[in-house]
Specification:
2 helices; 11% helix; globular; two-stranded antiparallel sheet; eight-stranded mixed barrel; single chain
């Protein structure tokens, strides 16, 4: 089976977004998937919370740059229609990140799901097909998440690793 590497390269902070008396800045990234030969096979945008990366749960902060494995999980997060109530437990089927070297990281329950801005992340990773500079939001998130979920379904989620890279200015 072919192995794939998804790379989330953090690019920059996004403008503060406000909704229902909450305000939050985000971190825009490129989310690209490469095959074993290094050929790009999928290209999307990502959105995460802004702040200092951490492994600690319940802080609404980005995750630490490193390699993660992916697993299917049941979740209440927003997913594309095809994956709603699709988990064997009758809940939404979502992609859950794991750090094989730190079992406690699972306490964060970091998912890849649908959303448009930092307020939607809930500490997780959102995907989109575009980015709107004026609003600080990614666009077409449902379509982007469905593309990546379908890719994971087609190629086997255990054959894909996620490499998260820090902001280019901090690298």
């Amino acid at each position: 089976m072919t192995n794939f590497r998804a790379v989330l390269q953090r690019l920059k902070s996004t403008p503060v977004v406000s909704k229902n008396s909450k305000s939050e800045a985000g971190t825009l990234g490129e989310f690209k998937v490469y095959d074993e030969q290094g050929q790009e096979v999928l290209s999307l945008y990502s959105m995460e919370n802004f702040g200092t990366p951490t492994d600690s749960a319940n802080l609404d902060k980005p995750i630490i740059p490193r390699l993660y494995t992916l697993q299917w999980a049941n979740s209440s997060v927003c997913v594309p229609p095809l994956y709603r109530k699709a988990h064997k437990l009758g809940l939404n089927k979502a992609i859950w990140l794991h750090d094989p070297n730190n079992p406690r990281f699972a306490d964060r329950r970091i998912m890849i799901h649908v959303g448009n801005n930092a307020l939607d992340t809930l500490g997780c990773i959102l995907l989109g097909t575009g980015y709107n500079e004026q609003t600080g939001q990614i666009t077409n998130s449902t379509k982007a998440v469905e593309q990546f979920y379908n890719f994971c379904d087609t190629h086997g989620i255990s054959n894909i690793v996620l490499e998260v890279r820090g902001l280019k200015s901090n690298a």
